[in-house]
From TrEMBL:
InterPro entries, A to Z: HTH_MarR-typ, WH-like_DNA-bd_sf, WH_DNA-bd_sf
Protein name as catalogued: MarR family transcriptional regulator
Presence of keyword Cell membrane: no
Domain HTH marR-type: 1-144
Coiled coil stretches, renumbered: none
SMART domains linked to this entry: HTH_MARR
Keywords assigned: DNA-binding, Transcription, Transcription regulation
Keyword Transcription applies: yes
Pfam family, one: MarR
Length: 145
């Protein structure tokens, strides 16, 4: 089913515009809250994915987070420069780069759950429990398309 046509499409009323604007608001608020940790919200995705064991290579992180490999490389460079992660070549396959959080990286990652829920809860405060569940359900459905 098509929900838009070229005749009735209006950017400011589109789902894409709303999702992008919502993302930008959350990123700005999250970045401000994370300022003392000296990490950005995209870097949070890397740190938490590594902490959870969801990804251990740049390729896995890029796929999981929906980030192109060039941007992923630049973000990993910054995290490595800050001493939050280390790269090493796989002994089985030299083409594979494995990532490991350093002690400092684990310490920063451990602080994120104190900060992120506050930011997200502030943005979601007008949602009932049912609306929150429905929003999550619909976003996951949107991502499956």
């Amino acid at each position: 089913m098509d929900h838009y046509t070229k005749e009735d499409f209006r950017m400011a009323q589109s789902v894409g515009f709303a999702i992008t604007k919502a993302r930008n608001l959350v990123v700005a608020e999250m970045d401000a809250a994370l300022k003392d940790l000296n990490v950005t919200s995209p870097q949070v995705g890397i740190l938490l994915s590594m902490t959870d064991g969801a990804a251990t290579t740049p390729f896995e992180l890029a796929r999981l987070l929906g980030i192109d490999t060039g941007l992923m490389t630049r973000m990993l460079d910054r995290l490595e420069t800050r001493g939050l992660l280390e790269r090493s070549r796989s002994v089985e396959d030299r083409r594979v780069v494995n990532l490991t959080l350093t002690k400092a990286g684990r310490a920063v990652a451990a602080r994120i759950p104190e900060i992120a829920p506050v930011v997200l809860n502030a943005r979601l405060q007008k949602f009932s429990s049912e609306e929150f569940d429905e929003l999550r359900r619909l976003l996951h459905k949107f991502l499956e398309a």
